[in-house]
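Whether sequence alone determines local backbone shape is best considered at the level of individual chains. Part of our work consisted of pairing the sequence of a single chain with a tokenised description of its backbone. This step matters because it turns folding into a mapping between discrete strings. For completeness, the protein is quoted in full, as a sequence line and a line of structure tokens:

_____
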Amino acid sequence: MAGAGLLMLLDDIATLLDDVALMTKTAAGKSTAILDDVATQTKVAVQKTAGVLGDDLALNAEQVTGVKANRELPVVWAVAKGSLKNKAILVPAALLISAFAPWLITPLLMIGGAFLCFEGVEKVLSLFHKPKHTHDAVKESEQAAQMGVAPSSVKAANEKNMDPVAYEKAKVAGAVRTDFILSAEIMAIALGTVASKPIAEQFAVLVAVALAITVFVYGLVAGIVRMDDVGMWLMRKTSAAAKAFGRGLIAFTPWLMRGLSIVGTAAMFMVGGSLLVHGIGPIEHWLQSTVTPMGGVVALLAPTLVHVVVGAAIGGLVVLAVEAWHKLRGH
């Protein structure tokens, strides 16, 4: 009797183990399906943010240049950490706002857009107040190639009279502020692609997008700011082709930096203006109903032009308002 009871108990345990195995297999299948869905949604979200991603890259590459050569990578790393902190705030904030106050998304993005345009106008105005001793970047690169040193070393030598700690902190703070607004737009776009998904899947997609974009952008930024050193390394090779390529890379670097400076400033107006226009009903409706159906070059370029014009105009108004506020306070 005891033996029969033991056999029945063992049979029950075996049945239970079979049930556990079946449920585990089912759960694993569901988990795999969820992971596949997250991966697919992440890919879609990254593709939809590609336009902002390009602006993010140009802006951050331009923002972190100008520091001493031996501090370029630490500054990139500091900004990358700041970017991760931004996204650690933005991911849960985006989910909470989307769940409880979705009407806040557009006004908040518009405020961020106005700030970007404000910074863009200030950057343009600063071009008219450059110090007279500023050297031309192309001439510096040619001198550097002749002396056998990286252009960034010459640039650092020209900046030796500046307080490096304060300058570096200002660079990092400015880049992190700009990154916050661009990251907010990226998170908003990514969230739009998974708005109908369960909250856990939305969170997983936003985290995946945040990590992927941060690694991609700041990995490329680190490569861009050290291009001149790669050129110098190639110039020390015995191969004539490597030396020629190294010289070309050194000559090209300042032109790239100058181009990124222009593109980065323009991106402030394009991204900021697009955030503002999206919240201004009549302009957005006109673009969607009249300009977009035209197709061709007009549909491609006109919205960008409108974004830049609106962004520059509102950025200028913000600059005037800030200046008036400072005067009222006696600053």
The CA atoms of residues 86 and 304 lie 27 Å apart. The chain has twelve helices and no strands. The chain has a mean pLDDT of 74. The longest helix spans residues 2-48.
